[in-house]
Amino acid sequence: MAAPRALAAARRAAARGWRGAGGGAGAGPGRSRLYEHVREGLSARPQLDVAALSERELERRRGPLRGGDLREIVQTWARLGEVRASIARLEAEKGRVAQGVRALMAAHDKETAEALPAYAALRARGRQVRLELQALLAEEAGLDERFYLKALQLPNRTHPEAPVGDESQARMLEVVGEKPVFDFKPKGHLELGEGLDIIRQRRLSHVSGHRSYYLCGAGALLQHALVRFVLAKLLPKEGCGMQPNATPSPVYNIAPSRFEDLCLAGTSEVGIAGYFMDHAVRLEDLPIRVVCSSTCYRAETETGREPWGLYRVHQFTKVEMFGVTAAESGAESEALLAEFLALQKEIFSELGLHYRVLDMPTQELGLPAYRKFDIEAWMPGRGKYGEISSASNCTDYQSRRLNIMYSDGAGRLRHAHTVNGTACAVSRMLIALLECNQLPDGRVRVPPALQPLVGQAVLARPPAPLLRYIGPNQPRGGREVP
């Protein structure tokens, strides 16, 4: 029998030959970086539970695949199993042929052994086995790639209580706090921020293009205060995606000609999940709760929506919660999702926000989520609620792809469940805080929970603006030069 390394090398060679014949693992739309990572031996092979998903569930989700694709994936997997069984039988026979040749060579001198009909028959069969193996290995490589490039696009199963349909079918679970009432027409956050000289978004295309912004003075203090407030609340309790191939892609790639596989993360969930990739934890250490503050990047290609303001921006700071749980009863991840949701509500309530909690429908779950709750805060300047956070139970969807495991009570390795939740997306939190706490004269009250961190109870416009615009787009034209 071939040594494991030799067999793996043969399979990689067969895979390279199959791709060269027109396979879908190049730079085309069928590419999967995770599959390439696995194929090169840098990570364990994903253990996908394809049979757990039904065609009906797939049709209810928003994704690239439909029910017919699931049938094709299952058929490919079945044929792949047959091919691998044939490969195993031929490898065993190859070993028996080699053993027979060695036995003849041990019983006779070389010249006599090679003259024996049995020797010739064994050598002929050995050549035939190698040819059959070569063909089967090429077929296996093609089937393996076809299976994973499709199967990795399948969504998670769906919680039976999740509403079916698009965003309009979201189920209201709870409304918290009182909607602020004004005896004046409330302003939007951008107008307030510009009036206070704490947000600058106009005339920045020369710096970093559309949807850029600066937080200045008290605006920067508010950002740091929010991060510090949330981290201080979560650290004692914590114990310490996004689909890149969506169309249009929300991901920024870094010079693909030089760094083919590097991109900017849209959420720290990506990095935290990578931290646990190919690792196992002990059952007694679960659940593990992690909190991370990071800068996030989103392409936000829908330029017609929210063209100004901080609701849809390319770069923002976010504090993210991530959890890894056991799957002994199947209820552990649901309990952790409820815990994350309770923490989100605690944070937003302490900041005095009026918000509602939504059970999101099937088409809004994204591929990894089994169930997802969104929280929307009232934003008076926009005259509507806006999403400020979400929390998702991904069950074993991520762990099967990233090989995140735990040791159960018997010491066996099992796939963990993962849960994630936004604790604070700073840009959208600033919208709600500025618009809900505004005063008639354009000043803004700072929530009591943030006042010690900001150092101010009320944000007021500074006596004089730091900068005066003198460029060509002034209302009265360019500046005069004496």
Task: Label this structure with key terms.
alpha+beta, 482 residues, disordered N terminus, single chain, seven-stranded antiparallel β-sheet, 40% helix, three-stranded mixed β-sheet
List the helices and strands and how they pair.
Blueprint: H1 4-20, H2 33-39, H3 55-60, H4 67-107, H5 110-115, H6 117-151, E1 171-176, H7 189-195, E2 199-200, H8 205-208, E3 214-215, H9 218-238, E4 252-253, E5 263-264, H10 268-276, E6 279-282, E7 288-297, E8 315-325, H11 332-350, E9 355-359, E10 371-379, E11 384-393, H12 397-402, E12 404-407, E13 413-415, E14 417-425, H13 426-436, E15 444-445, H14 451-454, E16 458-459
Helix pairs in contact: 1-6, 4-6, 7-13, 9-13
What does this structure look like?
It is elongated, with a radius of gyration of 29 Å. The protein is α+β, with helices and mostly antiparallel strands. The chain is built from 14 helices and 16 strands.
